[in-house]
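This section describes the prediction task in plain terms. A model, or a person checking by hand, is given the sequence of a single protein chain and must write out its three-dimensional structure as a string of tokens. No templates, partner chains or ligands are provided. The sample shown here is typical of the held-out split.
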Amino acid sequence: MKTDKELKELVKQKYSEIALQDQNENMALCCGSGGCSTEVYNIMSDSYESLEGYNPDADLGLGCGLPTAYALINEGDTVLDLGSGAGNDCFVARAQTGENGKVIGVDFTPIMIEKARENAEKRRFNNVEFRLGDIEKLPITANIVDVVVSNCVLNLVPNKKAVFQEILRVLKPGGHFSISDVVLVGDLPLALAEEAEMYAGCVSGAIQEATYINLIAESGFIDLKIQKKKPILLPDDVLKNYLNDDELASFKNSNTGIFSITVFARKPDCCKPENGCC
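The expected answer:
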């Protein structure tokens, strides 16, 4: 069993490699990591092409939803993107928050930050910034963010409770988040759960849907709702990298499911004094 520090280093290493791949290569894989499928389609994510502000060269094909499409961003908002990658969701958020708003992306992979900054500079976006940091301990002042978005990132973080507590801290009272992530219903086979590339590829780091939702509620958020839910069906040629024929048949006949969910929740207008907003 890997420690939290080892898991973080694994994810950082894999996503440094992914940053150097092109979108088509990433989209044919499981969130950009190993287990290449001969069936050429995007296993996880939805298409951003219809969203204003979308920039194809900032889209690495690593997501599992469209959180910015559901995030209810208003003009002038300050928006925070957790695990901002090459800047895709930040640029979509900028189109919604406008010139009077601000967008901050946080990522802990230096090469991703470099890539995102280059993309922003090309477009002369002076109200979009990217900060190197760990989303378990955000480099953001408390109570300054209107909206938090994230796309297929929290499942990769060992301490998800710490992330939700940090989201609560940085949101303004009444602020909200819309987060797309991968969750499970039932337990993955051990071979999948322990495989490094599947972990960095969004599946084995996922937790049970009920546990995920409970973490949000226990962190102090209100008005919780699932905005979208869809099954993630991994092709046999991916699963066969990890499971033998008997294990594969058993897995497919079980009640286990892998899902992408987009979740909304709001910080109370007045919360506990220890959260700094009362």
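For orientation: The radius of gyration is 18 Å.
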